[in-house]
Every structure is written in C-alpha cells, then in structure tokens.
Amino acid sequence: MAADFSRVRVLIVDDNGYMLTILRTILHGFGIKQIFESKDPADAFDLVRSDSVDIIISDYQMEILDGLDFVRLVRTADDSPNPLVPIIMLSAYSEKSRVMAARDAGVTEFCCKPVTAKEMFSKIASVINEPRPFIRNKNYFGPDRRRANPDGVTYKGPERRAGLQKAGAADDAPTDDANAEAG
C-alpha cells in the first residue's frame, strides 16, 4: 500500500531558492500538497506560530539565524505553538560534530545534501510512522536521542551511563512527566 501524504503540511526553511525548488518538487512527488516555504528562519518561525505544520525541513547553515538556532526556537520558545513538531535537518556538511550538534539542538532526523527522493521519503516516513518520545531535562528538550536498543532490554536503573555516578548525576534523572525520560 502506498503512503498517503496528501494531508501532511510541510514547512521548508532554506535560504537557497534552488534547494527550495528541489525539495518542493520531491514533496509534490510524494503527494504532499500543502508546502510552505521560507528563506528566512525568523519569518519561518512567524509562519510556525500562525499556521499549523506537521513537519519542518530546515537547512543547517543559513545567514543570521542558522538552522540550529531555528530548531532551538521551535523547541523551547515560550510562544512556540508546537515544540513537538518533527524537524528534519538538511546539511551539505555531515561531520560527526555537526550531526551531534543538530541532534543536541532537538532535530528529529538528519539528512545529507545532495538529498535524494528516496532518503527524504525515508525520513518523512520515519517521523510519521515511528515517532520518538520527547525528553525534557534542564539541558535538553527534543526527541529521545537514544536510537538503538540492541538487546531489546529497556533500562530501568537510575543512571544508564556507566561511570556517571558522580555529584550532579541526579540532574539527568527521569522526570515524572509520562512523555519524558532522561536524555
């Protein structure tokens, strides 16, 4: 059965007009009809506040306000209407440090440029079909950064990282919030 993305509302944030065209073409190919575009992250945040979007696709490196700042704004600003919205980050730079910075800012998925339709479909399907729980602690708010559970065992202890039983380790203890775990 083919996926029906016809009701999905997507916001693309990229300061490169050519990239906006490529992404719009790819998304239209998936049957996505409601596509919002912005070359300016500040304007994009205004759009997030005024229109309901289901997925945000944002470039990493932009002028003035970069993609990481935009993600943090969506995730943590007091006037952000949907801090849980899935955000797919695009970047031509895929160094581990950039991927980790995007993850730590609250990105849901990371996609390297040049982007392919197959990869974009995979990322969109993932954020729709396999949503991750969100984490809130004093240093992070966003999707659970832990992806793999190779043993199929869910950790139940007070501290999952070995060697971190130091003063202050309790700051990352799970919250009482049903949708939150330590990040």
Concise structural overview:
The chain is an alpha/beta fold and about 180 residues long. It contains five helices and seven strands, in the order βαβαβαβαβαββ.
What do you see in this structure?
- It is a single chain.
- Helix content is 31%, strand content 17%.
- The chain is an alpha/beta fold.
- It has a domain of 123 residues: Rossmann fold (3-Layer(aba) Sandwich).
- Strands 2-1-3-4-5 form a 5-stranded parallel sheet, with helices on both faces.
- Helix 2 packs parallel to helix 3.
- The longest helix is centred in the first third of the chain and has 13 residues.
- The chain is globular and about 45 Å long.
- 28% of the residues are buried.
Q: Provide the CATH superfamily of the domain at 9-131.
A: Response regulator
Tell me the overall shape.
globular
Fraction of residues in H or I helices: 25-40%
CATH architecture of the domain at 9-131: 3-Layer(aba) Sandwich
Low-confidence sequence ranges: 164-183
- Mean of the pLDDT scores? 85
Largest sheet: 5 strands, parallel
For this structure, the CATH topology of the domain at 9-131 is Rossmann fold
- Separation of the first and last Cα atoms: 35 Å
Beta fraction: 15-25%
Which descriptors would you attach to this protein?
single chain, 183 residues, alpha/beta, Rossmann fold, 5-stranded parallel β-sheet, two-stranded antiparallel sheet, 5 helices, 7 strands, disordered C terminus
Task: Break the fold down into its secondary structure elements and pairings.
Elements (H helix, E strand, L loop, with lengths): L8 E5 L3 H13 L4 E5 L2 H10 L4 E5 L7 H10 L10 E5 L4 H10 L3 E4 L4 H13 L4 E4 L2 E4 L40
Parallel strand pairs: 1-2, 1-3, 3-4, 4-5
Antiparallel strand pairs: 6-7
